[in-house]
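Checklist before submission:
- one chain only
- standard amino acids only
- sequence pasted in full

Submission:
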Amino acid sequence: ADSVIVDVRTPAEYAAGHLDGSVNIDFQSPSFDDAVAELDSDADYVVYCQSGNRSAQAVSAMVAADLTVQDAGGIDEAAKATGLPVVP
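Returned file contents:
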């Protein structure tokens, strides 16, 4: 199965450019844990942010929720790792 790419930056950062096909779940939002709880536990997730700081924290939270998660770091690293383009 394909991995779900998760952008944990703010909606404004996401709107300024994100990996093609990624979903935006703002790590700094009060509803982050609720959003994580609703994710499909059978899927694999790849998480990135701007520099790698928030993604590491988000991955910890997602792993604690029994999800299979890979930390792709910052958006530039994640683009290289996944081969996905950054789109508006």
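Reviewer check: The first helix runs from residue 11 to 15.
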